[in-house]
Amino acid sequence: MAAPESLRPRLCRLVRGEQGYGFHLHGGKGRRGQFIRRVEPGSPAEAAALRAGDRLVEVNGVNVESETHHQVVQRIKAVEGQTRLLVVDKETDEELHRRQLTCTEDMAHHGLPPVHDPWEPKPDWARGGSLGSSPDQKDVNGAPRELRPRLCHLRKGPQGYGFNLHSDKSRPGQYIRSVDLDSPAAHSGLRAQDRLIEVNGHNVEGLRHGEVVARIKAQEDEARLLVVDPETDEHFKRLRVTPTEAHVDGPLPSPVTNGTSPAQDGGTWKRDPFQESGLHLSPTAAEAKEKARATRINKRAPQMDWNRKREIFSNF
Hints:
By secondary structure, the protein is an alpha+beta fold. 23% of the residues lie in helices and 23% in strands.
């Protein structure tokens, strides 16, 4: 197995020959993405160092990891006579996944960033260990890490803010998919996998992707984004508390100690007036009916806007 410091994506520049580029692309069943199935001997693909088993990350500078096979093929055909493919072999792909890094063209030139580089997610944010972890995780200095939202102030640069926002059909919300190196987003502390809570002081958790994009673009050259990393997100969800700017440096909600979670309505905690006296009264029939109706309403899926069904990725 190659040493981690020698692993890097490869940028393959292909010029079409009389018989085409000379490689076969396929989508792998049970795994995400498009893969190089075969490279013809003596072909432009072989000359460009494309290899069987490579996973395709970008086509002509555009990330295609979430696109269908047909969409990727169309991107390759879009530029006549030549194409630029960013690919990773299996070992590099596994290393990027282990370190939760988004593959970029810059990595093909300079290699992967050193471990603990400021723009790489730190180990205690790792998704794999966050869901079942305790809220008093230790930070890199050994002290308990407070699970707080982060307020990121971005000022647009010549190339924009430098991050990619996406929504995932398997989970609600808008997420930071990637952050460009040395961009305004990176300098503000925005990180890949963050979930977006507020834009310029307005909660956007219930908005569609296009509506969130519009809020970010509402102010011409700056944006204020409240985000949570995966571990903080899970912690606040367990407490049934919506993160706000007040939690960035103010008092944090306390974990429930009696095994029950208080009800939350619009951010206001409802206390049982009989709880302190030790009484636990059953609800009346009318109260139970109202509670059941409210639960059904809360579970009801928002109406799908079919005009926006493909609008799930945006670059800033």
